[in-house]
Amino acid sequence: MLKQTKIxxxxxxxxxxxxTNHDLEKMMDTSDEWIQERTGIKERRWFTxxxxxxxxxxxxxxxxxxxxxxxxPDDVDFIILATLSPDYFFPGSGVLVQEKLGIKEVxxxxxxxxxxxxxxxLSIGDQxxxxxxxxxxxxxGSEIHxxxxxxxxxxxxxxxIFGDGAGAAVxxxxxxxxxxxxxxxxxxxxKYAKELVVIGPGNMTPVRLDASNAEDPTIMxxxxxxxxxxxxxxxxxxxxxxxxxxxNSMAKEDISLLIPHQANLRITQFIQKKMELxxxxxxxxxxxxxxxxxxxxxxxxxEAYQEGRIKDGDLVxxxxxxxxxxxxSALIRW
Length: 334
Ligand code: UT7
Description:
The protein is an alpha/beta fold.
C-alpha cells in the first residue's frame, strides 16, 4: 500500500535588512501609498551581497525545519530546491545545500517553476515518500530577487513587489492513513511564458552571454505584464483550490487554513471574498516580506505553524500561481 506523506518540520530564514516602501521612494518614482493600495506590501527583506546566497538561506531554513522534526542532516535522503534565482546559472542550488548541510551524497534536484516552485517540489517529494523510495525528503524554496531587479523608475511595476527569503519543509511517511498530503495538482500554460519572464542569459537573444545584456535591464531583470498576470491569477487560484477539494470530496467549508502563494494581497483578498473565507481561515504575510515566489508558501506555512494557526487535524490548503504560467495546489490533513 502507498504511504501518506507528512510534513514533520518547517523552518524559514529571511535576511536582516528591511526595505520599506519609503526606502524605495528614494530609489524610484513610487509611493508608500501606491504600493500599499495596489499590493498590500509595507516592507520586504533584501539580502546582503557576500553574506547570504540562495543556498545559505535555504540551508538556514532547512536546519530549523530539521530541528523542529527532531532530525539531523544525516537523516535526509533527498533534497529538492525550488528557485528562480539560483546562485549559479548551473549547477543548481540544491547541490550547494547538500554541501553546506554536510549531508551524505544524496540526490539534489532543482525545480524551476517560479511562484509554483514550492508546490511542484512538494509534489515530487510526496511521490518519492508515497512509493517508499525515500524516508526523509527536504523541500526548500529560496529566492534572492533583490540582486536582479531594476531599481530605477523603469522597473517600479515589478521591483516593489518582490522580496528575498527562504522556507523549508521536511517530509516523512506517516502510518496515519487519514493524515498528510491528500493530493497535489499541477498545471502549466506556456502560451503565457512571456507575460512574466527574465530573458537573459538565455537562447532568445543572438548571443547568450553578451556583456551588453547586463547593461540592459529589459533583458536581465523580470518583465511582467501585471494586469494579465493578475487576471489569470484570480481565476486559476480558485480553479486549482476547487480541483483539490473535489478530488478529495471536500468543500470550501472544510478548509481550516488557506495558505496562498503571497503574490499580492489584493489577489488573496479577491479569492478570499469569492470563496467566502473569513480572515481566520486565510494566511497573509506579504505585508512584511513582499512576494518571495518559491519561498513564499514555506515561509508562510512556517510562520502560520509557529503562530499556532495550524493545528493537528486541520485541513490546510496551499495554492500558487505565477510565471510560466504555472499554477498548483496541495491539500494537507495536518
Ligand atoms: O507571483 C505571481 C506573479 N505576480 C503577480 O501576481 C502580480 C500580479 N499583478 C499585480 O499585482 C499588479 O498588476 C501590479 C501590482 C503589479 C500593478 O498594479 P496595476 O494596478 O496592474 O497597475 P498598472 O501596472 O496597471 O499601472 C497603473 C499605473 C501606471 O501609470 P499610468 O500609466 O496609469 O499613468 C503605472 O505606470 O501605476 C503606475 N505604476 C506605479 N506607480 C507608482 C506602476 N508601478 C508603480 C509603482 N509606483 N511602483
